[in-house]
Prior knowledge:
This protein is an alpha+beta fold. The chain has helices at about 5-25, 30-45, 70-80, 85-95, 150-185, 240-260, 265-275, 365-380, 385-395; strands spanning about 50-55, 60-70, 100, 120-130, 130-140, 200-205, 215-220, 225-235, 285-295, 295-305, 310, 320, 340-345, 350-355, 405-410, 430-435. The strands form 3 sheets. It has a 6-stranded antiparallel β-sheet with strand order 7-8-9-10-13-16, covered by helices on one side. A hairpin with a 5-residue loop joins strand 1 (about 50-55) and strand 2 (about 60-70). Residues about 415-430 have low confidence and may be disordered.
Amino acid sequence: MSAGASRRAVGQQWLQRLLDAVVSVSADMDTRTVLHRIVEAAADLVGARYGALGVLGQSGEFTDLITVGVDHQRLMTVAGLPQGHGLLHTLVADQQALRVPDVAADPRSVGFPPGHPVMHTLLGVPLMVRGTVYGNLYLADKKDGTPFGDDDEALLTALASVASVSLENARLYERLKHAAGHFQRRMLPTLPDLTPLQAAARYEPASELPRLGGDWYDAMVLPDGATCVVVGDVTGHDIEAAPLMGQISNMLRALAFDHCGPPSLIVSKLDHVLSMLDDPPTATLVLGRIECDRGQYTFHWSNAGHLPPLLIYAEGGTCYLAPTHHGIPVGIDTTVPRFNHEHLLPPASTLLLFTDGLVERRGQNIDASLDDLADQAARLTAAPLDDLCDALIAPSGKVFDDDIAVLALRLPGPQSGSPAEDRHPTARPAATTGI
Length: 435
């Protein structure tokens, strides 16, 4: 084989190895795993003993360091993240490739911190997309002892471009998630003063895009003095779910305020309003009224295909309010009857309304999840409502398969001379009427 053919063969092998490396890192959606594979690929293809990728935060400081060839945990413990000086600072500031044949002799070098391997040669390139520097990718000390050359720099530059796009996509993805979550929360109401009831609510968007979901909560004092509460979930999780949620929530609020009737009547009227639309949306919901008569509170509600409310007794017991008659979601069939239910609310008890995102877990039975929720709530009966809501959401670990809406309401404590109360979950079943 001639020298020219040999060089072409080596070049083709080099290009194939580079393409293989790019394909392997592009197949993983976890950004840090992608970056680690890029460092591994760079060190392997160039034959370097050490490799690292430093990630810069938006204010220009290093926020992460991914390494190959060193004890990463020990390095972080002893030296921590790189500081904004020395050769790495030069690499970021100059925004161009850097080749250093003798690190110790370079005047820009500031040496190595204790515990850091002593490196003799360095090749680094910035991670950039459209003028924005996201970090740097660098190698040190080729295993064969030769200096870094043009081919090494070209390969590292190619891999750096893959890393740069991965970092930019991850940053854009986080911005989009934040904007979507902010938009969703702006569509939800601020809870009004419901004294003597205490109230707290939480909304958490799904962790993965599309984050715009259809879960909502609402509460208000009606003209007749009753407190109206609702939690619902519009079918679907696409970009249309959030505005549909806003429409249904506003319709329901207007109907409840205008009619002040039994919950089943309000839900039935919502059904008829939705049926007039060309493409009626569907949603599950629980709509309720909390009424007070001579110090005794009663919860009247209608359930449209939703998970049942949870009543948390002051003594620590719990009870799901799940009568036999269960309505279908709204927006499906106006001829299907709606049912009213009622249940006495003991002093200092807490009523919890929630959407399925709170209890649905991949691979877990929904009944088991509901039991877990009731057990956890029973242990938090005396907790402030804000703490209760936070604690009930906490098991998700801030990773939500679906969006979550939670509304908690606490009754005032017993008063002197008040009538005997229902203090046991099974003492009085919920009454049911139909419409």
